[in-house]
Amino acid sequence: MSTEPSAYHRRVAAEKRAAILKAATGLFLASGYDSTSLARIAEAAGVSKATLFKQFPTKAALFDAIVTESWGAEDSGGPDPSAEDLRAGLTAIGHRYVELLTRPGMTALFRIVIAELPRFPELGEAQFSQGKLPYFESVSRYLAAAHVAGSAKVEDPTLAATQFLGMISNFVFWPTLLLTDWAPEPSAIERAVAEAVETMIARYRP
């Protein structure tokens, strides 16, 4: 007899996990990381404490999962962009980055980290090492590949990735931390990405 969980049980487990992550994010934002207990999260998620502890034995493990889940959209936009066509590749990456930054909950996640960072620096470490850094490194690798392919001359892919992502996030995302009504029109976002791409091409064209 197989000991593997059935498709039904896997689906139920996934639904409970999603409910836990959603409840935890909401409670962390409303009450703070320190003031929110795992028992309270279990109650808000509609699961037993045993179910929650089985998946997330500590609050830190739960927060790590929230970060990983939030940044997990990196490969959701289709195949890897071609390193031989810099304009098309950067455009695809730019729009994927916009989609990621504007996902529901992303702003809330950053607010949690910023609010709790003085007392819980490990939250910032989790956000950086498990979220932002892997995504950033994927863009850096693309720019390095473009350099090898000859579509760009990028001696420092790390710096170039910082420049490109910064141009986009400074318009699309960072204002949302201070302005609750910041919601640029799609055409404005499209232009921001296009201008970032053209700036990169002007700087790094072979």
Automatic annotation (TrEMBL):
Entries under PANTHER family matching the protein: HTH-TYPE TRANSCRIPTIONAL DUAL REGULATOR CECR, HTH-TYPE TRANSCRIPTIONAL REGULATOR RUTR
Positions of the HTH tetR-type domain: 14-74
DNA-binding region: 37-56
Name this protein carries in UniProt: TetR family transcriptional regulator
Keywords: DNA-binding, Transcription, Transcription regulation
Source species: Micromonospora rosaria
SUPFAM superfamilies on file: Homeodomain-like, Tetracyclin repressor-like, C-terminal domain
InterPro entries associated with the record: Homeodomain-like_sf, HTH-type_TetR-like_transc_reg, HTH_TetR, Tet_transcr_reg_TetR-rel_C_sf, TetR_C_Proteobacteria
Any one Gene Ontology molecular-function term assigned to this protein's record: transcription cis-regulatory region binding
BP GO annotations: negative regulation of DNA-templated transcription
